[in-house]
Protein backbone atom coordinates (compact mmCIF):
# COMPACT_ATOMS: atom_id res chain seq x y z
CA UNK A 1 0.00 0.00 0.00
CA UNK A 2 1.62 3.23 -1.20
CA UNK A 3 0.71 6.91 -0.93
CA UNK A 4 2.60 9.38 -3.13
CA UNK A 5 2.51 12.88 -1.65
CA UNK A 6 4.92 14.79 -3.86
CA UNK A 7 7.89 14.56 -6.23
CA UNK A 8 11.62 14.54 -5.63
CA UNK A 9 14.04 16.31 -7.96
CA UNK A 10 17.51 15.55 -9.28
CA UNK A 11 20.07 16.19 -6.57
CA UNK A 12 17.69 15.62 -3.65
CA UNK A 13 18.80 13.49 -0.76
CA UNK A 14 16.21 10.83 0.12
CA UNK A 15 15.83 9.55 3.67
CA UNK A 16 13.84 6.39 4.32
CA UNK A 17 12.56 5.85 7.88
CA UNK A 18 11.12 2.38 8.56
CA UNK A 19 9.43 0.94 11.64
CA UNK A 20 7.68 -2.36 12.37
CA UNK A 21 4.01 -1.55 12.98
CA UNK A 22 2.84 -5.04 13.92
CA UNK A 23 3.71 -8.71 13.52
CA UNK A 24 1.27 -11.44 12.61
CA UNK A 25 1.72 -15.20 12.48
CA UNK A 26 4.08 -15.43 9.48
CA UNK A 27 4.34 -11.82 8.33
CA UNK A 28 5.21 -8.37 9.59
CA UNK A 29 3.96 -4.97 8.47
CA UNK A 30 6.62 -2.29 8.13
CA UNK A 31 5.69 1.36 7.74
CA UNK A 32 8.04 3.47 5.61
CA UNK A 33 8.18 7.28 5.44
CA UNK A 34 10.27 8.89 2.68
CA UNK A 35 11.53 12.46 2.95
CA UNK A 36 13.40 14.48 0.30
CA UNK A 37 15.94 17.22 1.06
CA UNK A 38 17.56 19.78 -1.22
CA UNK A 39 20.77 21.43 0.00
CA UNK A 40 19.03 24.19 1.94
CA UNK A 41 16.46 21.84 3.47
CA UNK A 42 19.25 19.48 4.47
CA UNK A 43 21.14 22.22 6.30
CA UNK A 44 17.97 23.26 8.09
CA UNK A 45 16.87 19.70 8.82
CA UNK A 46 13.48 20.30 7.23
CA UNK A 47 12.61 17.67 4.64
CA UNK A 48 9.60 17.20 2.38
CA UNK A 49 7.39 14.19 3.09
CA UNK A 50 7.01 12.73 -0.42
CA UNK A 51 5.96 9.13 0.08
CA UNK A 52 4.50 6.66 2.60
CA UNK A 53 4.19 2.91 2.27
CA UNK A 54 3.13 -0.14 4.25
CA UNK A 55 5.17 -3.19 3.30
CA UNK A 56 4.45 -6.82 4.20
CA UNK A 57 7.44 -9.07 4.84
CA UNK A 58 7.76 -12.81 5.29
CA UNK A 59 10.83 -14.60 6.65
CA UNK A 60 11.98 -18.11 5.75
CA UNK A 61 14.48 -20.50 7.29
CA UNK A 62 17.16 -22.57 5.55
CA UNK A 63 14.47 -24.95 4.28
CA UNK A 64 12.50 -22.03 2.82
CA UNK A 65 9.74 -22.59 5.35
CA UNK A 66 7.88 -19.58 6.72
CA UNK A 67 9.14 -18.44 10.12
CA UNK A 68 6.75 -17.39 12.89
CA UNK A 69 7.33 -13.81 14.01
CA UNK A 70 7.45 -12.94 17.72
CA UNK A 71 4.64 -10.71 18.95
CA UNK A 72 5.43 -7.06 19.56
CA UNK A 73 3.99 -4.94 22.35
CA UNK A 74 3.18 -1.27 21.67
CA UNK A 75 4.59 1.02 24.34
CA UNK A 76 3.77 4.60 23.38
CA UNK A 77 0.55 6.18 22.12
CA UNK A 78 2.06 6.40 18.63
CA UNK A 79 3.11 2.74 18.79
CA UNK A 80 -0.47 1.79 19.66
CA UNK A 81 -1.84 3.89 16.79
CA UNK A 82 0.42 2.14 14.27
CA UNK A 83 -0.29 -1.26 15.89
CA UNK A 84 -4.08 -0.83 15.51
CA UNK A 85 -3.68 0.59 12.00
CA UNK A 86 -1.82 -2.54 10.93
CA UNK A 87 -4.67 -4.72 12.24
CA UNK A 88 -7.20 -2.65 10.27
CA UNK A 89 -5.14 -2.99 7.08
CA UNK A 90 -4.85 -6.74 7.71
CA UNK A 91 -8.64 -6.95 7.70
CA UNK A 92 -8.80 -5.06 4.42
CA UNK A 93 -6.35 -7.51 2.85
CA UNK A 94 -8.45 -10.42 4.10
CA UNK A 95 -11.51 -8.81 2.54
CA UNK A 96 -9.78 -8.41 -0.80
CA UNK A 97 -8.45 -11.97 -0.75
CA UNK A 98 -11.53 -13.87 0.39
CA UNK A 99 -14.48 -11.61 -0.41
CA UNK A 100 -13.63 -10.10 -3.76
CA UNK A 101 -11.76 -12.99 -5.37
CA UNK A 102 -13.20 -16.10 -3.70
CA UNK A 103 -14.12 -19.08 -5.84
CA UNK A 104 -17.28 -21.13 -5.53
CA UNK A 105 -16.47 -24.44 -3.92
CA UNK A 106 -17.79 -27.92 -4.63
CA UNK A 107 -20.54 -29.25 -2.33
CA UNK A 108 -19.13 -30.21 1.07
CA UNK A 109 -22.21 -31.54 2.87
CA UNK A 110 -22.28 -35.16 3.98
CA UNK A 111 -25.17 -37.47 3.14
CA UNK A 112 -27.09 -38.31 6.29
CA UNK A 113 -27.33 -42.08 6.77
CA UNK A 114 -29.38 -43.34 9.70
CA UNK A 115 -27.31 -46.54 9.72
CA UNK A 116 -24.17 -44.52 10.50
CA UNK A 117 -25.73 -41.74 12.56
CA UNK A 118 -23.53 -42.38 15.60
CA UNK A 119 -20.25 -42.17 13.66
CA UNK A 120 -21.46 -39.17 11.64
CA UNK A 121 -22.39 -37.32 14.83
CA UNK A 122 -19.09 -38.20 16.51
CA UNK A 123 -17.18 -37.13 13.39
CA UNK A 124 -19.00 -33.81 13.52
CA UNK A 125 -17.73 -33.23 17.06
CA UNK A 126 -14.19 -34.40 16.28
CA UNK A 127 -13.92 -32.12 13.23
CA UNK A 128 -14.97 -29.17 15.38
CA UNK A 129 -12.42 -30.06 18.08
CA UNK A 130 -9.68 -30.13 15.42
CA UNK A 131 -10.70 -26.65 14.22
CA UNK A 132 -10.60 -25.33 17.79
CA UNK A 133 -7.16 -26.87 18.43
CA UNK A 134 -5.48 -25.30 15.38
CA UNK A 135 -2.59 -22.92 15.99
CA UNK A 136 -1.86 -19.64 14.22
CA UNK A 137 -4.98 -17.65 15.11
CA UNK A 138 -4.45 -13.89 14.74
CA UNK A 139 -6.49 -11.26 16.56
CA UNK A 140 -8.21 -8.76 14.25
CA UNK A 141 -10.46 -6.96 16.72
CA UNK A 142 -10.81 -6.54 20.48
CA UNK A 143 -13.67 -4.51 21.97
CA UNK A 144 -14.69 -4.84 25.62
CA UNK A 145 -16.01 -8.41 26.09
CA UNK A 146 -15.49 -9.47 22.46
CA UNK A 147 -12.39 -10.60 20.57
CA UNK A 148 -12.25 -11.69 16.93
CA UNK A 149 -9.52 -13.91 15.50
CA UNK A 150 -8.87 -15.23 11.99
CA UNK A 151 -6.86 -18.20 10.72
CA UNK A 152 -5.56 -18.50 7.16
CA UNK A 153 -4.63 -21.92 5.76
CA UNK A 154 -3.85 -21.73 2.04
CA UNK A 155 -7.28 -20.88 0.55
CA UNK A 156 -9.25 -21.60 3.73
CA UNK A 157 -10.29 -18.86 6.13
CA UNK A 158 -11.67 -19.55 9.60
CA UNK A 159 -13.00 -17.13 12.19
CA UNK A 160 -13.12 -17.30 15.99
CA UNK A 161 -15.28 -14.95 18.05
CA UNK A 162 -14.57 -15.04 21.80
CA UNK A 163 -17.07 -13.58 24.26
CA UNK A 164 -16.94 -13.12 28.02
CA UNK A 165 -20.33 -13.85 29.59
CA UNK A 166 -21.44 -13.16 33.15
CA UNK A 167 -23.50 -16.34 33.46
CA UNK A 168 -22.64 -19.96 34.34
CA UNK A 169 -21.26 -22.15 31.55
CA UNK A 170 -24.05 -24.73 31.82
CA UNK A 171 -26.67 -22.04 31.20
CA UNK A 172 -24.86 -20.73 28.12
CA UNK A 173 -24.47 -24.29 26.86
CA UNK A 174 -28.15 -25.16 27.10
CA UNK A 175 -29.25 -21.89 25.51
CA UNK A 176 -26.80 -22.01 22.59
CA UNK A 177 -27.27 -25.71 21.85
CA UNK A 178 -30.98 -25.14 21.25
CA UNK A 179 -30.91 -23.72 17.74
CA UNK A 180 -34.64 -22.97 17.76
CA UNK A 181 -33.67 -20.01 19.96
CA UNK A 182 -30.94 -18.79 17.60
CA UNK A 183 -33.23 -16.31 15.75
CA UNK A 184 -33.89 -14.58 19.08
CA UNK A 185 -30.36 -13.14 19.13
CA UNK A 186 -28.74 -13.82 15.72
CA UNK A 187 -30.03 -11.59 12.87
CA UNK A 188 -28.44 -13.96 10.35
CA UNK A 189 -31.06 -16.62 11.23
CA UNK A 190 -34.70 -16.04 10.28
CA UNK A 191 -36.04 -19.43 11.35
CA UNK A 192 -34.67 -22.65 12.77
CA UNK A 193 -36.71 -25.82 13.28
CA UNK A 194 -35.89 -29.39 14.27
CA UNK A 195 -36.65 -31.80 11.44
CA UNK A 196 -35.00 -34.94 12.88
CA UNK A 197 -34.48 -35.69 16.58
CA UNK A 198 -31.57 -38.09 16.14
CA UNK A 199 -30.81 -38.44 19.87
CA UNK A 200 -30.85 -36.41 23.05
CA UNK A 201 -27.59 -34.72 22.01
CA UNK A 202 -27.92 -34.69 18.21
CA UNK A 203 -30.58 -32.97 16.11
CA UNK A 204 -30.95 -32.00 12.47
CA UNK A 205 -32.28 -28.49 11.82
CA UNK A 206 -33.68 -26.68 8.81
CA UNK A 207 -32.54 -23.04 8.86
CA UNK A 208 -33.50 -20.04 6.75
CA UNK A 209 -31.36 -16.90 6.52
CA UNK A 210 -32.03 -13.39 5.20
CA UNK A 211 -30.71 -12.06 1.90
CA UNK A 212 -27.02 -11.18 2.14
CA UNK A 213 -26.44 -10.30 -1.50
CA UNK A 214 -28.30 -11.35 -4.58
CA UNK A 215 -32.05 -11.71 -4.85
CA UNK A 216 -32.77 -14.83 -2.76
CA UNK A 217 -32.46 -15.74 0.92
CA UNK A 218 -30.39 -18.77 1.91
CA UNK A 219 -31.32 -22.00 3.66
CA UNK A 220 -29.35 -24.79 5.31
CA UNK A 221 -29.82 -28.30 6.66
CA UNK A 222 -27.39 -28.89 9.52
CA UNK A 223 -26.52 -31.51 12.09
CA UNK A 224 -26.03 -30.03 15.57
CA UNK A 225 -24.13 -32.28 17.99
CA UNK A 226 -23.78 -31.13 21.59
CA UNK A 227 -21.42 -32.65 24.13
CA UNK A 228 -20.79 -31.92 27.80
CA UNK A 229 -17.31 -32.62 29.16
CA UNK A 230 -18.15 -32.41 32.84
CA UNK A 231 -14.66 -33.16 34.16
CA UNK A 232 -13.20 -29.99 32.60
CA UNK A 233 -16.26 -27.70 32.77
CA UNK A 234 -16.13 -27.45 28.99
CA UNK A 235 -19.01 -27.84 26.54
CA UNK A 236 -19.08 -28.13 22.74
CA UNK A 237 -21.81 -27.58 20.17
CA UNK A 238 -20.65 -28.77 16.74
CA UNK A 239 -22.43 -27.85 13.49
CA UNK A 240 -22.08 -29.27 9.97
CA UNK A 241 -24.30 -29.33 6.89
CA UNK A 242 -25.91 -32.60 5.85
CA UNK A 243 -27.92 -33.74 2.86
CA UNK A 244 -31.40 -35.11 3.53
CA UNK A 245 -33.43 -36.44 0.57
CA UNK A 246 -36.59 -35.42 2.44
CA UNK A 247 -35.48 -31.76 2.37
CA UNK A 248 -34.36 -31.02 -1.20
CA UNK A 249 -33.23 -27.53 -2.30
CA UNK A 250 -36.10 -25.11 -2.84
CA UNK A 251 -36.30 -22.64 -5.75
CA UNK A 252 -37.19 -19.96 -3.20
CA UNK A 253 -33.79 -20.26 -1.47
CA UNK A 254 -30.12 -20.67 -2.25
CA UNK A 255 -29.01 -23.86 -0.50
CA UNK A 256 -25.91 -23.04 1.55
CA UNK A 257 -23.45 -25.08 3.55
CA UNK A 258 -21.59 -24.96 6.84
CA UNK A 259 -18.30 -26.80 6.55
CA UNK A 260 -17.41 -26.85 10.24
CA UNK A 261 -18.66 -24.53 12.97
CA UNK A 262 -19.88 -24.43 16.53
CA UNK A 263 -19.52 -23.15 20.09
CA UNK A 264 -16.90 -23.94 22.70
CA UNK A 265 -18.03 -22.93 26.18
CA UNK A 266 -15.61 -22.96 29.10
CA UNK A 267 -16.38 -22.12 32.72
CA UNK A 268 -14.26 -19.37 34.28
CA UNK A 269 -15.91 -19.80 37.67
CA UNK A 270 -19.37 -20.68 38.94
CA UNK A 271 -20.85 -17.41 37.68
CA UNK A 272 -19.09 -16.63 34.38
CA UNK A 273 -17.71 -18.30 31.26
CA UNK A 274 -16.13 -17.73 27.88
CA UNK A 275 -18.22 -18.52 24.81
CA UNK A 276 -16.19 -19.02 21.64
CA UNK A 277 -17.81 -19.33 18.22
CA UNK A 278 -15.75 -20.93 15.44
CA UNK A 279 -16.57 -21.15 11.73
CA UNK A 280 -14.52 -22.52 8.84
CA UNK A 281 -16.02 -20.17 6.30
CA UNK A 282 -17.50 -21.65 3.13
CA UNK A 283 -18.13 -19.68 -0.04
CA UNK A 284 -21.90 -19.84 0.42
CA UNK A 285 -21.88 -18.14 3.85
CA UNK A 286 -18.97 -15.80 3.10
CA UNK A 287 -21.28 -12.85 2.27
CA UNK A 288 -22.44 -12.77 5.90
CA UNK A 289 -18.83 -12.18 7.02
CA UNK A 290 -17.77 -9.96 4.11
CA UNK A 291 -18.32 -6.62 5.81
CA UNK A 292 -16.31 -7.54 8.88
CA UNK A 293 -13.44 -8.99 6.89
CA UNK A 294 -13.24 -5.89 4.78
CA UNK A 295 -13.53 -3.59 7.78
CA UNK A 296 -16.68 -1.73 6.67
CA UNK A 297 -19.12 -3.50 9.01
CA UNK A 298 -19.39 -4.44 12.69
CA UNK A 299 -22.04 -7.14 12.21
CA UNK A 300 -19.99 -9.84 13.95
CA UNK A 301 -19.39 -7.63 17.00
CA UNK A 302 -23.06 -6.64 17.02
CA UNK A 303 -24.21 -10.27 16.81
CA UNK A 304 -21.75 -11.28 19.54
CA UNK A 305 -23.07 -8.46 21.74
CA UNK A 306 -26.63 -9.64 21.12
CA UNK A 307 -25.59 -13.19 22.08
CA UNK A 308 -24.04 -11.97 25.34
CA UNK A 309 -27.17 -10.00 26.20
CA UNK A 310 -29.41 -12.99 25.37
CA UNK A 311 -27.47 -15.29 27.72
CA UNK A 312 -27.05 -12.77 30.53
CA UNK A 313 -30.76 -11.93 30.52
CA UNK A 314 -31.77 -15.59 30.75
CA UNK A 315 -32.61 -17.49 33.93
CA UNK A 316 -31.80 -21.04 35.01
CA UNK A 317 -35.48 -21.96 34.63
CA UNK A 318 -35.31 -21.07 30.93
CA UNK A 319 -32.32 -23.36 30.35
CA UNK A 320 -33.94 -26.30 32.12
CA UNK A 321 -37.09 -26.00 30.02
CA UNK A 322 -35.20 -26.41 26.74
CA UNK A 323 -34.73 -30.19 26.78
Automatic annotation (TrEMBL):
START domain: residues covered: 134-282
Domain of life of the native organism: Eukaryota
InterPro entries noted in UniProt: Cytosol_ACT, HotDog_dom_sf, START-like_dom_sf, START_lipid-bd_dom
Pfam families cross-referenced by the UniProt entry: START
Gene3D superfamilies with a match to the protein in the record: 3.30.530.20, Hotdog Thioesterase
Protein name: START domain-containing protein
Amino acid sequence: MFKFRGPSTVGDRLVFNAVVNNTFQTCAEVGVRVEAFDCQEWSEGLGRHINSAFLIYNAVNDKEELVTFPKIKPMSKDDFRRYCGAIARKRIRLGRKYVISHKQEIPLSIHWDIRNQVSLSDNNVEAFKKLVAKSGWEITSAVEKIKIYTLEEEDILSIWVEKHVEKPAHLAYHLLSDFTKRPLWDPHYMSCEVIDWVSEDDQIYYITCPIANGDKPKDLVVLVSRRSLKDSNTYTVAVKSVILPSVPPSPQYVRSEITCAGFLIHAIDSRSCTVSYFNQISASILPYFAGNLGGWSKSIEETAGSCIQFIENATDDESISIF
